[in-house]
Structure formats: C-alpha cells, structure tokens
TrEMBL record:
It comes from Streptomyces longispororuber. One of its GO terms (molecular function) is hydrolase activity. Keywords: Hydrolase, Signal. Residues 93-250 form the AB hydrolase-1 domain. Belongs to the peptidase S33 family. PANTHER family: 2-SUCCINYL-6-HYDROXY-2,4-CYCLOHEXADIENE-1-CARBOXYLATE SYNTHASE, TRIPEPTIDYL AMINOPEPTIDASE. Residues 384-489 form the Peptidase S33 tripeptidyl aminopeptidase-like C-terminal domain. The keyword Magnesium does not apply. This is Hydrolase. Pfam families: Abhydrolase_1, Abhydrolase_4. Transmembrane segments: none annotated. Residues 136-158 are annotated as: Disordered. Residues 1-25 form the signal peptide. The lineage of its organism: Bacteria, Bacillati, Actinomycetota, Actinomycetes, Kitasatosporales.
Amino acid sequence: MRVASAVTAGLGLAGLLVSGATASAAPPGAAKEPRAPLAWGPCPADQKELAEAGAQCAKVTVPLDHADPGGRTIKIAISRVKAKSPGERRGILLSNPGGPGGTGLAHTLALRPALRDVADRYDLIGFDPRFLGESTPIGCGPAPRPAPPARTTTPRKDFEASVRAARDTARRCQEQGDNAELLPHASTRNVARDMDAIRAALGERELSYYGVSYGADLGAVYTQLFPRRADRIVLDSSTDPAATQYELFQRSGRPAEEALRGRVRADVLALLTRAERHPLTVKGQRLDAPLLRMIFKQLVQHEENDPRLASVVSDLKKAAAGKEFEPGPALSGLLDLLSSPDLANSMVGGALFMCGDGGWPAGGWPKDPETYWRNMQRSRATQPVFGPYVNGMIAPCAFWKPEPREPGTRIHNDVPVLLLQARHDNNVPYEGALALHHALTGSRLLTADIRAHGVYGRGNDGLTPVPCADDAVNTYLRDGTLPGTDVTCAKPESGR
C-alpha cells in the first residue's frame, strides 16, 4: 500500500489545494437518511484484496448537484469491511489516497496493517470519488497517439508540445458524451458532500477519516462543510489553504530540488542538459527533458535517498552514451508507468478536480500559455531540475471552459484534527501545514523530522516508518486522545 497516490502524486499532482482564499458559500445541509437499504454484493473482480478480506461493495446514489437534490443523480461506489470487535466498534472510517484523481475503493482496507488493532474497531469504508473508477466515471475519449519526441529538440519546442496536449485534453473532456453537464460538478466540495451522503446511507451520525496529500485537503474541506459530522480526523501531508493550485504546484519545486543532492544531482543536471537538445532512447522509447523531470520527481517524492534514483540515473547515463543495455527494474517500471492507461486515466482524473475547484481561471491556473513559459524560464536560476516542470507543465485547466459553480472553501474551524507533516516534505513545503494548522484551531500538529511525503504507515510500503507518528494516529483513532501539545517525532533509524 502506497500511502500517497503513486501515480498522480508521483507526477507532481498530489497536494494541490482545493480551497481558495474566498469565503465559502453556505453548503447544503447534511445528507438525509436513505429511503432504502444499500444493495451489498461482491466487489469488482479486479479488486482482489477486497474479496480476500471478505469485503462487500455497494453504490450510493447522490445528487449530481447537491444544491438540486431532486435533479439528476450519480452513483458512488463504496466498499465495506465490517469491524471485527462489535463490542468495541467505534463507527466508520473513510479514507482518500491523494491525487487528485486517485481511486480509493480498497484504500481504507490497505491501511489495516498500519492501523493494527484499531482496524477491528471500525467498519473500513473505501470509496471512489465521483467520476473516477466505479463512481459514474467520466471519460475524455482516446487521446491521439503522440508522435515520439524528435531526435533533436529545444525547450521551447517541448513546451509548445505540452501546450498542444493540454489544449487537446481540455477539448476532448468537454466534448465527450454528456461531460458538459457533468464537469461543472467535479469539485472537492462535492466529493466532501458525497462523503457525507455515504455516512448517511450507512446510518451513522459521524464519520472518521484519514486522508493523505490531496486527501488531506479533502478532509479539511469536509470539516468545514460538516463540522458536526466529523469524528476523528487525521490529515497527512497537507497544503496551504490560501494558495491557488498553480501556486502550490510552483511551490513544490523547492522541496523537490532540495531533496536532490550530491553526485546524483550533477548527473541529473547533465542528463537534462543533454535531453533538452537530444532526447535519450531506452528500449526504443524516446525520453525528452519533460519526461525525465517527471521521472525524477517520482523518485525524490516519498523517501530520502531512494535507491531507485541511483539505479535509474546509472541506466540513463548509459542511454546518453548511446549504449545498448537492458534497463534495471526501477527504470523498467517507470517506463511501463509512462505508457500505462492507468497513468493517462489518473492524469485526466486529476484534471477534473484541478480544473473544477473554485477560483477562476480554473483553480488559479493562468490562461495565457506565455505566463507558464516566462515562469519556467525564470525558475531555472534557482531550480534547474524541477523549476521548468512545476512552472511550465501547463494543465488542461488553462483551456477549461466550464466555470466552477462555487468559490473555493475558506478553511477556518475548531474541529479536533490530527495533522501529520514531514519537516522536509519533498512535495509540499512545511509552511503549508503550518498555515492549515493555524486555520484549524482545534488541531494538533505532529511533525516528523524526515524528508518524505506521507508520514503514516510508511512501513507498509517498505519505507522507513515513523513509529511515533503511527502510535499517535492509532491512539487518536482508538481512544479519541489528541496529543496535549504539538509534537515533533525524532528522525527514526533508517532501514527497510
């Protein structure tokens, strides 16, 4: 189980804030109790871990537009693994793995090793957010097969290719089927409302929740819209609630740049300098500089000194030298990811919410492509590796036509919340967590003295765990006890 969404988060889309600085409109009231019981049955065949755990799945009917409860409806797919200790049952625990664009039908179940005995006290509820996975999915039609990068290129040519691709994605999403009706309702506020509808459909007065990265931002929005329905809420690796999505994307460059140190940094810079003129070729697949930056962002995201980074750099140096070679498992896996339909689906799913959340232009993304180019070029002085990526990778939102139906959510409440953050988060600056901590006046902040993205349950992924953080989360979910003050967990001993 990767605590942060390995696909979308790894490509720099995680932690993009959904809430702007404008005051939020009054939300619709809490979801009403359902008129009929849910029809539980087997989970989708491709969700083997759910079947092995004895989970059942169902669909919750929710309004497309929560302000129009009598209008068109959509279906939200949920899974449930019942509590094993009925006498000690606390309630329901939902989760979100990040993205935006990450599906989560099996995510809460995947938390079970980290939860240990706490898992037995909750019905573990997974769900796919609206328009993703099994929840009335939105498709954007097949993308045209991209031409392979030319043997020679320039940064400007690469940028112009990204602009064409973003414009085409926006066009395909808006023209496909009845997407024109659906897209305006792809927002984090509506996902939070869907969560409350799940709570009501399960007959619960409150829900508990764990969210990481974008999932943490989603949890903060839930506390704002439904403070009386929030039970025990854990938000891991969050962002600044007053920043636009584009600003957050830009801010992710500095921590990623700082994570890339030593000899490997010099090698990465040399590879990028070469690829900006002559893309590398590995097993017939041509890798230009934007793709390399995407790969390197994945490799610095979750763990300090990720051993895969050295392996990938070594392979890419062979490619730069024109050698024939068999790439190692790390590079092979990343190449498979780049050509996977799962990646394309996740990128489109991320765009739905990045573009649909409050603020205009959509999510704070500039409309003029030249703004990205100028920011990209300026960033090279201080962030030569990741600056061009986080400033210049133009999102489809620049060409998005459906205007968000609501403003962003202004976060400010006193709901008791446990916040987790790495002091040296490789994806979002630590200052963002401090800003959210200030906005959530009832929260406690647990700081892990590590360089990583995602603090809870890291041992499940073979990453160095933070026992202090795991214990604090489990104590809170088990007993309802928040730390008396903010806490700093010392850097744990490394080891896998």
